[in-house]
TrEMBL record, chains A, B:
Keywords of the record: Amino-acid biosynthesis, Branched-chain amino acid biosynthesis, Cytoplasm, Leucine biosynthesis, Magnesium, Manganese, Metal-binding, NAD, Oxidoreductase
Subcellular location: Cytoplasm
Organism: Roseimicrobium gellanilyticum
Record-annotated site: Important for catalysis: Y144, K194
Protein's recorded name: 3-isopropylmalate dehydrogenase
Residues involved in NAD(+) binding: G77, P78, K79, W80, E81, K82, L83, P84, P85, N86, E87, Q88, P89, E90
Residues annotated as binding Mg(2+): D226, D250, D254
Catalysed reactions listed for this entry: (2R,3S)-3-isopropylmalate + NAD(+) = 4-methyl-2-oxopentanoate + CO2 + NADH
GO CC terms in record: cytosol
Cofactor binding, note field: Binds 1 Mg(2+) or Mn(2+) ion per subunit.
Essential cofactor(s): Mn(2+); Mg(2+)
Upper taxonomic lineage: Bacteria, Pseudomonadati, Verrucomicrobiota, Verrucomicrobiia, Verrucomicrobiales
Protein's pathway: Amino-acid biosynthesis; L-leucine biosynthesis; L-leucine from 3-methyl-2-oxobutanoate: step 3/4
Known role: Catalyzes the oxidation of 3-carboxy-2-hydroxy-4-methylpentanoate (3-isopropylmalate) to 3-carboxy-4-methyl-2-oxopentanoate. The product decarboxylates to 4-methyl-2 oxopentanoate.
Length: 366, 366
């Protein structure tokens, strides 16, 4: 069988450390299950700015184009915060990658494991037993890319304009992603909008209602974004699949991640159009950031990166069995009490470990 | 002395019940401190739609114009949700009132009383001792009113457009409100934006930095809105004054209110330009909604409405002593253990009371 080509963009901060663990896990997957991977490492973000003057160098983009998927670490850090915004690691690398590859569907599972509810800022009684919410965020439309996007003189005064714009077809395609995902879950989509104020909200709601007709087995609810920001805290267990436009998804998926309590364990997938065979080109990355404060110390939680690799196997390579095996291994290691510092509570029968030890344990479990 | 004219717009759901208690408290303020109030009740929201076919009838608007301030209850409910969006209670009454009177500054204190931390969804250890965050939200700009605002055919497809637009002067005036408020508080403004994506974010951040120079005694921090949605949950005690544009303020102030744990106790003020003497025309309303599920049962918490009346006295009538007296009375009644259902935990030395009994206790305390 041909080797699967994976572009590896570790980036900044804890990116390289946690990526190393994901690579170990993928090597073990090859050994155990057979699929071959061809990895190509490229610079991105601050590391690329330092070496080549650009957050997303042409080489990096070319490698991504020649690959089946991108395994991404994280980018950014204090060192590059004074650059002009368009050149900064996040804006200079992430947004162009999303746009270039048409990665319109961002899937962010927020999972709170039953044994890790202590790490959540939310009261135990509200999250007992943990929860599992999937945020489906539209990623290439809305205020992020809409034109006009402008800052300058207007009517004699400095003025800024950003445009929230959605075509119906953009809403249709992301809604299908959410409903399909919900069918494999608890069959409940909560669609978020601000239909009481925005024209986009009205079009969003009407379109999602239409798409819902194709999925009679899935229940659809609507929530205003401000109300959603409240209810997610109070009753995260009442949510299954949350469907959002780009900016609302940015805010609410981060809020959900915080409620889950362990950013270091949350993976994400950004997918383009399905190709033949139902696979997607995609970019897979942890939900957390570069965590510059703990970078280089060998204490970061590698699980988000490892689970991102699992999502890559599932969505871009069609290796469902292998993806599920990684996810199961992670659960077992957590059940056995291994904890990196971010999820360690000092409880009996748990043990604090570093980045590499956590990675090794997951490899061994596989 | 001339009587102060107050337009009373109780609205729907629990609005009339809690308004009755605020009226009792204001009557007691007259009795005790002397100022005279001339109240004029008008219909608004669903009640006005039912009686006059419009959420904001001309009579109501005329009364508001002839008044020194508006004491508002809340509007909306399932009965009117099928109306065209522009005619619904919220959009048909609240937004036009804000725009008509130029109420650009929305102040929403999120206070978690030390004795009510149990009512918050956030773990006790993160909020021990309670907290007090003031959200200053710009209320007449951004995506709410920006043009073009459009839904229809574009390039052969149904499309929605909303425009996020801020002029520098709009940002300057709300920033001054936030810095002035912070001076009377813990001298720390956290300004929220999405400067890594939006041109509005860049203008917002640069402008707030400029205004900050006039307030060397106030510390200024910046947070991206997605990060703010996380940090507010984890460390609400680290925030003092949070400054937001319109939509971000809508989302984050509701999130903060939920974190405080007792929506039924949170007041808000929406203020226009300062008049001579430093007073503001304003609209004062509880942060919570109409709560149709408990309306008419006499169990709603009237404190948000009563504290909204206190804000009215402070900002629109300049009656600081009277405002503070109401706030102190509320604190004492809470300290004495009186609780409406929404904040009752069953703890010893607390007692569950209804709407009227809570109002009466506050009156007695005054
Ligand atoms: C870094 C930033 C541009 C990005 C976004 O806003 O989409 C990030 O917050 C995310 O959610 O991936
Ligand atoms: C009802 C709605 C239009 C309003 C808003 O979005 O401003 C409400 O959510 C608020 O915060 O006052």
């Amino acid at each position: 069988a041909k080797a699967h080509k994976i572009a590896v963009l570790a980036g900044d901060g804890i990116g390289p450390e946690v990526m190393a663990e994901a690579r170990k896990v993928l090597a073990r997957v090859s050994e155990k299950f057979g699929p071959q991977f061809e990895f190509k490492e490229e610079l991105v973000g601050g590391a690329a700015i330092d070496a080549k003057g650009k957050a997303l160098p042409a080489d990096t983009l070319a490698t991504c184009e020649a690959s089946d998927a991108i395994l991404f670490g994280s980018v950014g850090g204090p060192k590059w915060e004074k650059l002009p915004p368009n050149e900064q690691p996040e804006r200079g690398a992430l947004l162009p990658l999303r746009k270039h590859f048409g990665l319109f569907a961002n899937l962010r599972p927020s999972i709170c494991y039953p044994s890790l509810t202590h790490a959540s800022p939310v009261k135990e009684e509200l999250i007992a037993g943990g929860f599992d919410v999937l945020c489906v965020r539209e990623l290439t439309g809305g205020l992020y890319f809409g034109q006009p996007k402008f800052r300058g003189e207007k009517d004699g005064e400095e003025t800024a304009i950003d445009t929230m714009i959605y075509k119906k077809s953009e809403i249709v395609r992301i809604a299908h992603v959410a409903f399909k995902a919900a069918q494999g879950r608890r069959k409940h989509v909560t669609s978020i909008d601000k239909a009481n104020v925005l024209e986009n909200g009205l079009l969003w709601r009407a379109t999602v209602e239409e798409v819902a007709k194709d999925y009679p087995d899935v229940k659809l609810s609507h929530l205003y974004v401000d109300n959603a920001a409240m209810q997610l805290i109070k009753q995260p267990r009442n949510f299954d699949t949350v469907l959002c436009e780009n900016l609302f998804g940015d805010i609410l998926s981060d809020e959900m991640a915080m409620i889950a309590g362990s950013l270091g364990m949350l993976a994400s997938a950004s997918l383009g159009k399905a190709k033949e065979g139902g696979l997607y080109f995609g970019l897979f990355e942890p939900s957390g950031g570069t965590a510059p404060d703990i970078a280089g110390k060998g204490i970061a939680n590698p699980i988000a990166q490892i689970l991102s690799a699992a999502l890559l196997l599932r969505f871009s390579l069609g290796l469902e069995k292998e993806a599920a095996a990684i996810e199961t291994a992670v659960r077992h290691v957590i059940d056995r009490g291994l904890r990196t510092g971010d999820i360690y509570s000092g409880a009996d029968d748990t043990r604090k470990v570093g980045t590499a030890e956590m990675g090794d344990a997951i490899v061994a479990e596989l």
